[in-house]
Design goal:
The complex is a heterodimer. Helices cover 34% and strands 16% of the residues of chain A. Chain A is of the alpha/beta class. In chain A, the strands form 4 sheets. A 5-stranded parallel beta sheet of chain A has the order 3-2-1-4-16. A 5-stranded parallel beta sheet of chain A has the order 6-14-7-8-9. Chain A is globular, with a radius of gyration of 23 Å. Chain A starts with 14 loop residues before the first helix and ends with a helix. By secondary structure, chain B is α/β, with parallel strands linked by helices. Chain B has 2 domains: 2-89, Translation factors (Elongation Factor Tu (Ef-tu), domain 3); 94-217, Rossmann fold, CATH 3.40.50.80. Chain B has 10 helices and 16 strands. Chain B has helices spanning 22-27, 68-74, 100-104, 117-129, 149-155, 174-184, 198-210, 244-247, 258-265, 269-283; strands at 2-11, 14-20, 33-37, 45-53, 58-64, 81-82, 84-89, 108-113, 135-140, 159-163, 170-171, 191-195, 215-218, 234-237, 240-243, 250-252. The longest helix of chain B has 15 residues, at 269-283. Chain B is globular and about 65 Å long. The two termini of chain B are 29 Å apart. The chains are: A alpha/beta, B alpha/beta. Chain A binds chain B through residues 170-172, 180, 209-212, 215-217, 238-240, 242, 248-249, 251-252, 254-255, 257-258, 261-262, 266-267, 271-278, 348-349, 396-398, and chain B through 23-24, 27, 37, 41-44, 68-69, 72, 83-89, 224-225, 227-232, 234-236, 241, 246, 260, 263-264, 266-268, 271-272, 275, 293-294.
């Protein structure tokens, strides 16, 4: 009869209040709510949720452990497959993964798997297991490039196997996209990101910030001079794309990366920090992904009237459903089937508006989505003083350009197989650096697979 | 943390700082820059490398205090630490990877303006160490604003000085010296490298274009990360948008859209000036009671 209970609603900050602060939107489940929601799971014999999870977390098992109140066991179950449950519970697109496959979703609402994962992850961060012994060192050193999801996951697994691991981070703070990209209101930095990093440190992993591999050091110098036996590239996809339309270099046009880095990593919203940020009165964010939602909601919180301009329709928005829902609640306006053709400037070279055309949906393209087609003669202007481009990112070419024998594809992604093995012996890669911009959970999973491949490589060396 | 080994005021509001940063010191090449952050709340400030010593593990930077962040950096004393010192960033100067024989046959003219003298120095020094004596023009407002003149003299071929008021050397602009050298003295140059205020680089570019003299400039665009992530530093070169941090900072001067570059430098000017005013008021003991400093 479990499925007779409705999905337990999750408590959230009031939309009006939160549109003016940077505190977390969603409060998550408490123990009682979590156990009640856990009771809805049918514990399917052939769990479709597990099949749809990119890292195959044993979902029914951890949920039944939540139901029994054994959160430590639930945490161990998730840990078999994921090292960042607090993060993934918050940022995974559950509706297209685990929850999208849940049987209960056919007639009603799926089990809130993401919220339960988050509950277990947060519980584990608040109840750190007593300082477990770090395994005896096996004497081998591995270098990890980038401290984002793939790097952290790869480093943790290697440290547990006894490797001495050091993570090299280009920025001044550890966490990669979790720190510079995803805003505080969606992923709290101290409570979740820093705590997750602390767990990795507790395993004996060392961090070196301000170190740009390809400039400060190179993969060759790490392997040949610093005694590392293998290197994992988890440098992400950090290079912003622009549209290539007129007016893109006007003052007031920024990449979502710049806008979010100023706000998240550099804390421009906090008056104690020196970081300047240009918010303007009316902000147009171009794009429909999670980064676009993050940028538009950040602009709103900094006091602007904020719009999304997206060339397809609502159904094609690549952002998580929850983020779109939250954005709407917060008063973000969506201009769908709209594509910019030019950014208009004042005589002094500052943005004064954006010229767009209306679109209609035509035949499905390679991605299976119906491709947008311009409606002739539909040009119109939207007045604004800031335009934020959230069109996706590609991998930074720096590492590939300074590493001989490392193959990349035409998009600049490092070529690696399913285990993270690249064309260069001893060099492994995973996450967005290989796939182009994707999800935290895929990057995390790739980092873990590469850790196994690195172990095998060093053992057979 | 990066310890400050040495600090000197070279001219009014221009400071030299030698910083312990062994990794940067051993990888740095002429033309590259670093990103510096004074403390946890500071901005990431790009500064061109003025000198480096791999054996000592030190990197020298020269900073002009113009805003809150540069003042914060310069307020630190030897023995204290900078929170961050990341680099070297950007591509090294092109000549570093050129064939030495070809390079030795070239006549190179450097044009340095104000604090831009600092990044010119390691380039001229590198050339001198590789058997190339380059001519250098140093321009400044007046004699007191000239920096690193003696160091430069030691590594340059001919050193020419120009000041706006004639208090030292030639009275006038660096562009007039360029014209004088080429037209009056019949000098021939194969390459010109100009580093200084954007407006100076623009006019050097216009001048050398007349003589078909290939000219390289080093742009000091706004940046956040300095590694290609933010795109704040984008600039039009030959009609194409490129990033100063990863594609530069050195570009062909005759292809750079200087007017756009100068305009983009002013993107955060209002905020910067506001922050500076607030800091000054605070330093003067003023406490805002109505929250304008938030």
């Amino acid at each position: 009869m479990a499925n007779k209970i409705a999905r337990v609603p999750v408590r959230e900050q009031d939309p009006q209040k939160r549109a003016a602060n940077f505190e977390e939107v969603c409060y998550g489940y408490d123990i009682e709510e979590a156990r009640k929601e856990a009771s809805r799971c049918l514990n399917c014999k052939k769990p479709r949720c597990v099949e749809q999870c990119p890292v195959s977390i044993q979902i029914p098992r951890f949920i039944s452990q939540v139901l029994q109140g054994d959160f430590a066991a639930a945490s161990r179950t998730i840990a078999e497959d994921s090292s960042l449950p607090s993060v993934c519970g918050r940022v995974c697109p559950q509706e297209t993964q685990c929850e999208g496959a849940c049987i209960l979703g056919i007639k009603g609402e799926p089990v809130a798997i993401g919220k339960l994962e988050r509950f277990v992850g947060d519980w584990a961060l608040e109840h750190p297991s007593p300082a477990g012994q770090t395994p005896p060192s096996n004497g081998h050193k591995v270098a990890v490039i980038g401290s984002g999801p793939s790097g952290l996951a790869c480093a943790s697994d290697l440290a547990r196997m006894g490797y001495r691991v050091k993570i090299f981070e280009a920025l001044h703070k550890v966490g990669g996209v979790l720190e510079y990209g995803i805003p505080e209101f969606r992923l709290p930095k101290e409570r979740i990101v820093a705590a997750s990093v602390e767990n990795v440190k507790r395993l004996g992993v060392e961090f070196e910030t301000d170190t740009i591999v390809g400039r400060t050091v190179t993969i060759d110098s790490l392997l040949e001079e610093e005694g590392y036996q293998a290197v994992f590239i988890g440098s992400g996809a950090g290079l912003p794309r622009f549209m290539g339309i007129p007016g893109e270099n006007l003052n007031g046009v920024v990449s979502a990366n710049e806008f979010l880095t100023r706000a998240n990593l550099m804390k421009a919203y906090d008056s104690r920090y020196d970081t300047p940020i240009y918010v303007g009165r009316r902000v147009v964010v171009v794009g429909g992904g999670n980064v676009a939602m993050d940028a538009v909601r950040t602009a709103k919180r900094l006091g602007a009237e904020a719009f999304i301009v997206y060339r397809r329709s609502e159904a094609e928005l690549p952002a998580r459903v929850e983020e779109v829902h939250h954005a709407r609640q917060e008063g973000i306006e969506f201009r769908m089937l709209t594509n910019p053709t030019e950014i208009l400037g004042t005589e002094q070279g500052w943005v004064r508006g954006i010229r767009c055309v209306r679109m209609t949906l035509g035949e499905p393209d390679q991605s299976g989505r119906r491709s947008p087609v311009v409606v002739e003669g539909s040009e119109f202007e939207i007045e604004c003083d800031v335009v934020i481009m959230a069109l996706g990112t590609s991998p930074n070419p720096l590492i590939a350009a300074t590493t001989a024998g490392l193959d990349t594809d035409r998009r600049g992604c490092v070529v690696a197989d399913g285990q993270g093995v690249t064309s260069r012996p001893g060099v492994f890669a995973g996450g967005d650096a290989v796939t182009g911009a994707a999800t935290v959970i895929l990057a995390m999973g790739a980092g873990r697979k590469a850790a196994r491949a690195i172990d095998e490589y060093i053992r057979n060396k | 943390m990066y310890k400050i080994l040495e600090k000197r005021e070279l001219a009014s509001a221009i400071w030299l700082m030698k910083v312990h940063a062994p990794r940067v010191a051993s990888s740095a090449r002429p033309g590259q820059f670093v990103i510096v952050r004074a403390d946890e709340c500071g901005e990431r400030i790009p500064l061109t490398v003025a000198d480096y010593d791999a054996r000592e593990g030190s990197v020298t930077i020269v900073i002009q205090t113009i805003g809150v962040s540069t003042k914060k950096i310069c307020a630190l004393d030897p023995g204290q630490c900078l929170a961050d010192f990341a680099g070297p960033l950007g591509r090294p100067s092109e000549f570093v990877s050129e064939d030495l024989q070809t390079l030795r046959g070239k006549k190179i003219l450097f044009v340095a303006g104000g604090v831009g003298t600092a990044p010119v120095y390691p380039q001229v020094k590198w050339l001198a160490e590789h058997g190339v004596r380059a001519d250098v023009i140093v321009g400044a407002k007046n004699r007191d604003m000239l920096i690193m003149t003696e160091q430069m003299r030691a590594v340059a071929g001919n050193l020419y000085i120009a000041t706006d008021d004639g208090s030292e050397g030639f009275k006038g602009l660096v562009t007039e010296v360029i014209r004088h050298l080429i037209e009056q003295q019949g000098r021939h140059y194969d390459l010109c490298v100009a580093i200084g205020p954007m407006i100076m680089m623009k006019f050097v570019a216009l001048t050398t274009r007349d003589y078909g003299l290939k000219t390289i400039v080093s742009l000091n665009s706004l940046m956040v990360d300095g590694t290609g992530m933010c795109g704040a530093c984008r600039v039009s070169v030959g009609g194409k948008t490129v990033f100063t941090c990863v594609d530069g900072p050195e570009f062909d001067a005759h292809l750079v859209d200087f007017d756009e570059a100068m305009r983009r430098q002013g993107m955060y000017r209002t905020q910067e000036q506001r922050a500076l005013k607030i800091a000054e008021e605070r330093a003067a003991g003023h406490k805002c009671r109505i929250g304008l400093d938030k």
